[in-house]
Amino acid sequence: MTGRRSERLIALALLGAALFNYPVLSLFAVDGKVLGVPILFAYLFIVWAGLIFGLARLNRAAARG
Amino acid sequence: MLPAWTILLVSALYVGLLFAVAYTADKLGDRGLSLVNNPYVYTLSIAVYCTAWTFYGSVGLAAEQGLAFLTIYLGPTLMAIVWWVVLRKIVRISKLYRLTSIADFIAARYGKSMLLGGLAAFIALVGTTPYIALQLQAVSSSFDVLLHFPDMEAVEAGSAGILDDKALYVAVLLALFTILFGTRHIDATERLEGMVVAVAFESVVKLIAFLAIGVFVTFVLFSGPLELFREAAATPKIQELGLLTELPGGYQSWMAMLALSALAILFLPRQWQVSVVENVNEDHIRTASWLFPLYLLIINLFVLPVALAGLLFFGDRIPADDYVLALPLAVDQGLLGLLVYIGGFSAATGMVIVATIAVAIMVSNDLVTPALLRLRRFHARGQRDLSRLIVTIRRVVICVILALGYVYYLLIADTHALVSIGLISFAAVAQFAPAVLLGLFWKGASRRGALAGLVAGFLLWAYTLLLPSLAEAGLLGERLLGDGPWGIEWLHPYALFGLEGMDPIAHAFFWTMLANLGLLLGISLFDRQSDMERIQATLFVDVFLRSERDARFWEGTATVGDLQDLLGRFLGPRRSAEVIREYGAHRGRPLDEAEQARPELVNHVERLLAGSIGSASARVMVSSIVKGEALSYEGVMEILDATSRAIEYSRRLEEKSQALEDATRELRAANERLKELDQLKDEFVSMVSHELRTPLTSIRAFGEILLNNPEMDADQRREFLEVVVRESERLTRLINQVLDLSKIESGSAEWQLQEVDLGRLAREAAESTQQLFAERQTGLDVDVAIDDTAVKGDPDRLMQLIINLLSNASKFTEPAEGQVNLKVREGRGDNLRLEVSDNGPGISAEDQRRIFDKFHQVTLAQAGKPKGSGLGLAICRLIADAHWGRLWVESEPGHGSTFVCELPRAGGEHCDITGHINLAGRTDPELE
After folding, report:
1. Cβ contact (<8 Å) for B294 and A12?
2. Which end of chain B has fewer CB atoms at under 10 Å, N or C?
3. Helices H, strands E: what count in chain B?
């Protein structure tokens, strides 16, 4: 299943690259706060944590397989 | 304010601790208790990525440009996602061919080119020097802040003379550490466990220190991050900066930094050292690829809060890079300040140590050794042991690198913010990316393309980033940055060819990558690769397709003694002899010095040498003693293909023969069964013939007597005629049985289907066999314990079944003492259970399985010959099957046997007997 795993990882990397770049980023580079936290700051850290979570899942699943 | 001696003492103690950790890890490693063989130490060692730049510079950058600092960590996260694809391949290749650095990797990929290796080592050296300078500067300035704060003038003034400069002492200490723990082995592929564990330890220290200051600032100085954000948002100055809502520098700069840092995590020499060379197990990459981004995320959580706090506290009064350290000092938290200082110190020293050893190995293997080999004509067979020399070279190179870093630090100290120097290094090592990444996945990438790309990329980097940084430090004419060199505007380093409006890093990244990638692609597409290049390209790109033993190139020959001498010169005679001995032991016999070495041994030696002096030099050395040519590309490919074909072929052969074996086994089993059936049939026919002949013989005999003795008296005649009639009846019975069997089997039996009282049937059967039991003086008890015993079926057939079972039981019990019990009971589910048990000799397990087969007869030891026709039980089972029932036997030899028949109660769906018989006749329901 190595091939399949690699494909999923590459897709995840592309997703991350898209979310961390213009123009998606510009949607969040605005004034305002979510629960008291600046939107851009919150967005970046949430996406970051999401990527790490997905990465851990993919690599964990791989370890079992 | 802390006294200087305290700070110095703590620093010294910390370095001492580092030595102790490294020493212990090395000693444990020597005893086989490796600390580095786990994914967590591996991950922490990769965190050497976070240097003093992260520690102090991130906050500085955040205070100036807001969230842009995150790119430095988001880029590596993106790269870490595909580590399993990219890094694992690099690790596999490096281990297989004993490549010890990026320079060696590039050299080996492009036909073991000395020129490329040397160039790459040079780029790494030039690119790393500013970075080392940056760390020294960070340590020195953090020391000054800790010592003099809040007297910022004294901080600015720094240290008076060179002898008073802490950076010098730090550099000397680190040189000592690197020499001690970085050059233990001459073979650079041997892991530097002590160094790795020390670096991992430092990663823990800096994380704790930074979290401590982050928590302190956020939750003690301010009441939580929300409060901090609110206050920051309310401050006009911070709002003006747009730190929280914009990406200052624009998206160009954001993307360039993202890309640069993504490449840096792979191609910085120190990252390559810890993630590739020091990798113990490829599987660790899996854990590291998510754990390392997590480390980055955690260490960055408090960067922005600390930066905002610094802005609120100090504003412009002190450099933003000093915020981290100044904040605790400003509120008189000297100890916390000391902890922060140690955190920054550990971040800086970790980076310097690993970067120095990584670059030192590169420089010694790919720059100095090749030069020496050329210079001293080492091709001639000198007998000197060069291993000491190589280790010495490496130690000198370590000192030189640190000296260079220190000099650079002296030159540019205080002119650059930490970040921009770091980014200059990032941009330098990014030049390796096209050659390595393309070379990893595209066989067409050629040596000349890589060379041109690297040279162009490096020159442009030097022009657009290195020169301006020196100019800013006042070393070159100010005019360079004013209106371009010699006043030529389109040569301005920050706006080359008139490209304006980009920040210097994005600008340099664009031009260098354009030239580097463009030349590599363009030239490769029109280039003709040499045999060596094609071989290496194939080996690298297809590394997962080939096994280690495949790769051998040497057609020519050398004697074992020559090879041993060659190895001895670089590894030392003792190690060399050991290698040859091990190889011989592996082969099953000791090798003789004078004998011709096999190509595998030549290859093995070349690889061992590659670990010590680089792949390009190793090749040159080996070719100097091997007579005859190396194989051509076609030759090597032929061997590789032949090997892989042979492997594939033998794999398929194995599969085929396995399948054949299975088929044969099945066939043999079927054949056995057929033979048995055939034999049974033969036996049956002879048995039937025998049975037929006995009554026929007596009929004929009595008939003849009657014919020949007409005067026989009436009584006697009557007696004889009775015999004839009885024998005829027996004959008819036998023939009927045979006919029955074939009828039931062929399904043409015309059965009457009706409700039958099984209990009544059982009693009737017992009555009709009464005579039989009486003759044999065997007891028969009938016990019907339930009232409703209705089943659906053919009464005659069911009667036949019970009678067969009863007569069987009587046949196999001892006359006079036998006892047979017939019972009708509730069965499982909606079934009735009919049992016929006897106290006969029982049935062996083997016979139990076969007893219902047609023609099978149980042979009794005492009887010597079969007792039945072999059809009774077969018929019974057919009848039971036809009634949706089951018939089986439970028995233990010596303890009698019980035949059990379960039949479904009347009223179910089962009514189509004829259709079922066909089925039952063919299937062979298993016994319980």
Report:
1. no
2. C
3. 41, 7
